[in-house]
Amino acid sequence: MAIIRMCCCCGIRSGSIACAVYSIVIALLGIALFSFSWAGIHNTENTLYEIQAELPGLFGNLDIDSYIVALTVDYVLADITLSFVFITSIFVIVGINQDNKQLLIPFIVAKSVGFVWYLYAIAVSLYSVISIGYEYGGVAIVAELIALFPFFITDIVCVLCVLSQYQEYRDGRGRISDANRVNERQTTVVIEQQQLPSGTGAFAYQHMQGDLPPAYSNPTVQVKTVPGAI
After folding, report:
1. Percentage of the chain exceeding pLDDT 70
2. pTM to 2 decimals?
3. CA–CA separation, 58 vs 48, rounded Å?
């Protein structure tokens, strides 16, 4: 049974495609951002050393070299993870159009790896807080948590949606043919009783007098075909 039945205000099939498109856009933007940051890592290092020389003690016990290494790993992991997400998001679109559940698995794995990167990014921020002190580092960690939280929640929704679609495929549902069933038509039998002749209210009295009951016309059976919702 699927974990969720609705996603992005629609069914999980359409919702999974929407999640894949969203992931492609975010992955491209993220790759561009982190690649730019990675390219300028040496400038960041030089800037930190210059500030430390002008304002000794500002960074507390922060080891700039270790911090730069941690940032570099952060950027590299981000680019690798987002590249994986970009590729597997395309797999999701192809897999749903072809009703191939196997193509949905890499996306679920990629997003799960992305959660690990989220934790690592938070750990780097915590390291800066511990080293610099809450007075300066606390702002950085709060800002990063606020920035990451919407993406974290959205990624959870994407994983649940695609995983639910995979479960639908596994259970023999959720295919294109199943979705098209809503356009089928079902037959409904409508029985219409014609109006009884006037004077039937005295039927009991006439029957007691030996009169025959009034003649009734046979019910009319009409077969109508109306749109069905399956």
Report:
1. 63
2. 0.67
3. 10
